[in-house]
Amino acid sequence: MYLPKSQIKQNKFTNGEEFVRLSDGQNYKGFYWQDSSGRYFSGKTPQDVPQFELIKEPTEEGEDAAPLSKNTSWTTKYNPKITSVKPGKVPSKYFAQPTDDNYDIGEFQRYFTKKANQNIYYEISKKDYQNLKNQNNTILWQLYQPITLPWQISGDKEEVYKTNRNIVMETEQQQRLPGFRKIFRDNYLQYYNQ
User: Are 126 and 139 spatial neighbours (Cβ–Cβ below 8 Å)?
Assistant: First the structure.
């Protein structure tokens, strides 16, 4: 290719981290030249071969690279397992109801969840707990942590209070759940029945 010298800036050199190859995005180090439209190419002059187009590498400040030529296309291939699955639902809040059998036994299991990026806790159903634990795609298991604990509901009132409080404190500490105890509002006798 021949271009008049007045329309090119030739015999320039880069030490790297300034340009990347347009074709494959690989960092380019070496001689380059620039045409009058502001496009960059490898080599000292337009006559050097092999020759490939270069673009400015984006800077850390977030500046965009030099404009791409019109015939450039970008495609992104995503894993079909990700794109074909609809996002699951948020775990639903649930109000536990101990059964007569639970009162005969003296305890029942309670299920909670914590939002992964926030210290937000609430009670959920056993079904939602199991879906979270099993990473079932019907629920947003990626964003919620399942929590379970036994809850004493009969026996000596003082002992029930202490047991439930200790279980909550221990769960909070072992599973690193900051503020988990606050959702109980010091009501460790919830569902208690002599």
Answer: no
Structure tokens, 39: 């496009």
Distance CA 7, CA 36 (A): 5
Domain boundaries, the chain: 5-56, 100-184
Number of helices followed by number of strands (H, E) in the chain: 4, 7
Residues contacting 53, CB < 8 A, separation 6+:
21, 22, 23, 39, 40, 41, 69
Give the HSE-up count for residue 40: Cα atoms under 13 Å, Cβ half-sphere: 24
125-156 confidence digits (pLDDT tens):
999 999 999 999 899 999 999 999 999 999 99
Percent of the chain's residues with pLDDT above 70: 84
